[in-house]
Amino acid sequence: MEDDVCRVLISREQIARRVRELAAEIAGHYTDSHRGLTIVAILSGSVIFLADLIRHLPMKMKIGLITVSSYPGQATKSRGAQILESLRGEVRGQDVMVVDDILDTGTTLRLVLDELRARQPASLRTCVFLRKPAKAPPDLQVDFIGFDIEDVFVIGYGLDYNDHYRNYPHIGVLRAELYRD
Ligand code: XMP
């Protein structure tokens, strides 16, 4: 796996530090929430970030999952997002925070936010582990961001290429000859 990565963009130590900081920022925003927090994670890329983040969040919470497909198989360019499995259960009147791995073109997050808004939560916030500012649309505001990164295809810490590399502990850049656009 190491041989397939041409450079480490963010190390596991940097990730661990930033996730702790992010959790503190998030906790600070929900100190007055009487309703309890519902975290809605977008599968599959956010699983590792989700697992780390929630264990640093001290408040009572529920977790919901939503499965979206955007990069089918051997692709590194989004082909339009599609909800494969929607959230089970109610979020009406609850404080909801969406968690995703990466904000690239914003198609995925927009789709999920539209779906959740229609279910009338009391509040709706967003948290992404990575953002590519070069591509992310300026009108799509995210409340909590782990790292801004350059516009390169990254893998690891939950992010995949063709369903591999999710277990790579750092954020790495895949060697260009291993993928096709
Ligand atoms: P959009 O363009 O909808 O993309 O904001 C969000 C989803 O696309 C995937 N994605 C990536 N996956 N490395 C990956 O492994 C990347 O560099 C990358 N950029 C986008 C990811 O699933 C994300 O939720």
Describe this structure as you would to a colleague:
The structure is a single chain. The chain has three helices and nine strands. The protein has 181 residues and is α/β, with parallel strands linked by helices. A six-stranded mixed sheet has the order 4-3-2-5-6-7. Strands 1-9-8 form a three-stranded antiparallel sheet, with helices on one face. Strand 2, helix 2 and strand 3 form a beta-alpha-beta unit. Helix 1 packs across helix 2. It is globular, with a radius of gyration of 16 Å. The two termini are 20 Å apart. The mean pLDDT is 92. The structure holds xanthosine-5'-monophosphate.
Task: Give the percentage of residues in beta strands.
Answer: 25-35%
Sum up the overall morphology in one term: globular
- List the strand order in the largest sheet: 4-3-2-5-6-7
Q: What value does the average pLDDT take?
A: 92
Ends distance: 20 Å
Tally of helical runs:
3
Low-confidence runs: none
Oligomeric assembly: single chain
- Strand runs, count: 9
Helix-strand topology string: EHEHEEEHEEEE
Could you tell me which ligands this complex binds, including any ions or cofactors?
xanthosine-5'-monophosphate
- The helix content is 10-25%
Cα-atom radius of gyration: 16 Å
Largest sheet: 6 strands, mixed
Structural class: alpha/beta
